From TrEMBL:
Keyword Lipid metabolism on entry: no
Protein name as it appears in the record: G-protein coupled receptors family 1 profile domain-containing protein
Organism of provenance: Amphiprion percula (Orange clownfish)
GO cellular component annotations of the record: neuron projection; plasma membrane
Keywords: Cell membrane, G-protein coupled receptor, Lipoprotein, Membrane, Palmitate, Receptor, Transducer, Transmembrane, Transmembrane helix
Location of the protein in the cell: Cell membrane
GO biological process: cellular response to glucocorticoid stimulus; regulation of insulin secretion
GO MF, one example: neuropeptide binding
Superkingdom as given in the UniProt entry: Eukaryota
G-protein coupled receptors family 1 profile domain residues: 62-234
InterPro entries associated with the record: GPCR_Rhodpsn, GPCR_Rhodpsn_7TM, Opioid_rcpt
Keyword Cytoplasm appears in the UniProt entry: no
Length: 234
């Protein structure tokens, strides 16, 4: 230790070895699933389901009356009624699929299987394309009837309108079919197979149809789109 000199405070130095080894076992469970559901009540999903059912009832009744009236009374005697018939038929087919979509929004679960999922998406998509095409053709038909009625009379016959309508249905089906086939009832929801877009997985679903998708190996979601009340983050 030594002795302290006169007029100076004694000083000491102290060193300690404080290093130690800590062994701790952690119990961590990782669930590698495509989906997991949060069972919370979502007013938006319930509201959308009720709205879909109301639209289905009213729309199916209205379009059915139009179809019956044309077949019984007019018998598609003009090109205009032919296009109106096809427009009502396309809308009616879309109404048939609405109860299935309403059920998924209400329960946050698709219970009708993979084939029904694809069929409903085909009905939905073919309605969108056929309706737009029919309205376009009807506009052209009205133009020909008003601007050059004699010149275009041969193109405005019921037979010609039926041929054009058949082509519209075929073109709409071929357009929507590849996309609709990529829909599947994966993880209990009828949604598009996001694997065709890039590598990743859907990691969260909540009632009301919210779906979050995250690319593998990243921590952020990129983009979003909405399909029948279902928001998909990409």
């Amino acid at each position: 230790w030594g002795s302290a000199q006169e007029g100076h405070e004694p000083s000491w130095s102290l060193s300690m070895d404080t290093s130690f080894q800590l062994d701790t076992d952690y119990n961590h469970t990782y669930v590698d699933e495509h989906f997991y559901y949060v069972d919370n009540v979502d007013g938006f999903g319930i509201t959308m389901a009720i709205l879909y059912l109301v639209v289905c009832i009213v729309g199916l009744a209205g379009n059915s009356l139009v179809i019956v009236a044309i077949l019984k009374l007019d018998k598609m005697s003009s090109s205009t009624t032919v296009y109106i018939f096809n427009l009502a038929l396309a809308d009616g087919l879309f109404m048939v699929g609405l109860p299935f979509i309403a059920s998924q929004n209400f329960q946050n679960h698709w219970m009708f299987g993979d084939i029904a999922c694809k069929a409903v998406m085909v009905l939905d998509g073919i309605n969108q394309f056929t309706s737009v095409f029919c309205l376009t053709v009807m506009s052209i038909d009205r133009y020909m009837a008003l601007a050059e009625p004699l010149r275009f009379a041969r193109f405005r016959t019921p037979r010609c309108a039926k041929i054009v309508s058949a082509f519209l249905w075929l073109f709409s089906l071929l357009t929507i079919l590849p996309m609709a086939l990529h829909f599947s009832a994966v993880g209990g929801l009828c949604i598009p197979d996001l694997g065709i877009l890039s590598t990743g997985k859907i990691h969260r679903c909540v009632r009301g149809g919210q779906v979050q998708w995250q690319p593998t190996g990243t921590e952020q979601s990129h983009g979003s789109y909405r399909y029948h009340g279902k928001t998909v983050f990409m």
